[in-house]
Amino acid sequence: MTSIVLTLHAESFLHWIWVLYLPLFAFGYLILAVVSGMSVWSVARSGSGGLSVAAAVLAVVSVSGSLFLFVDTKASGWARFWLEYPAFAAAAAVEVPEHGEGDLYGVDLPSHLCVVAPNCRIATLGYSNRAPIRYAADYVEVFEDTYGYGHFVGTPESGPYNGFGTSVCPTMELAGGWWWLERCDGPDYERAR
Questions:
Q1: From CA 65, how far away is CA 117, in angstroms rounded?
Q2: Which of 61, 71, 154, 188 lies 20 to 30 Å from 160, alpha-carbon distance?
């Protein structure tokens, strides 16, 4: 289960260790596979068929579950949101500057809310229903890609919204006004202007 929790926070590691990110995660998954395999082998040697099956199932879940969450950003975003919902609920009340004012990436979150965004910041993405959209980026590659969490008051307008140079749209409703935002599909949304 530790591997799944670490995978849910993979973007935090990417934010802090950049170039070493992929080699370290590949090495981590290799270690996870080796340890899981050795555990199954050790239990299987004891001769208990039921324990061997249970160990094998746990090994498969830990390795494949982590890899699934690593590859599927939407599923990872959903799981992390629900595991850390109290922090997201508190982040919805953080004061943000007017859209276009201040730092592009927003304001610093209080340290106890840093689990909401890897860079520990919350930005104003624009407006929906005349209310600011709070945006906690889960991943940012400026002018290339971004995805993360947007807090809307009421039902969000469809977008697109300018996610640091990338057109993003709400694609999955979470709870408490929070939505998952990712790159908009279709040729009409190539770049946010």
A1: 22
A2: 71
DSSP class of residue 188 equals: G
- Calpha distance 132→183 (Å, rounded): 19
Longest CA–CA span in the chain (Å) reads 66
Is the distance from CB of 119 to CB of 147 less than 8 angstroms?
A: no
Count other Cβ atoms within 10 Å, centred on residue 187: 5
Q: Do residues 139 and 167 touch, judged by C-beta distance below 8 A? A: no
CA distances from 46 to 17, 41, 110 (A): 41, 9, 50
> One digit per residue, pLDDT tens: the chain, 193 residues?
555 545 555 555 555 555 666 677 677 777 777 777 777 777 777 777 777 788 788 777 777 777 777 778 888 888 889 988 999 999 988 887 776 666 667 788 888 888 888 888 888 888 888 888 888 888 777 556 778 899 998 888 877 888 777 888 898 999 899 999 988 876 555 444 3
Residue 137 in tokens: 């980026």
How many angstroms separate the CA atoms of 106 and 83, rounded?
24
Neighbours of 28 (CB within 10 A): 16
Q: Are 134 and 94 in contact (CB under 8 A)?
A: yes
| Strand partners of residue 150 | 135, 179
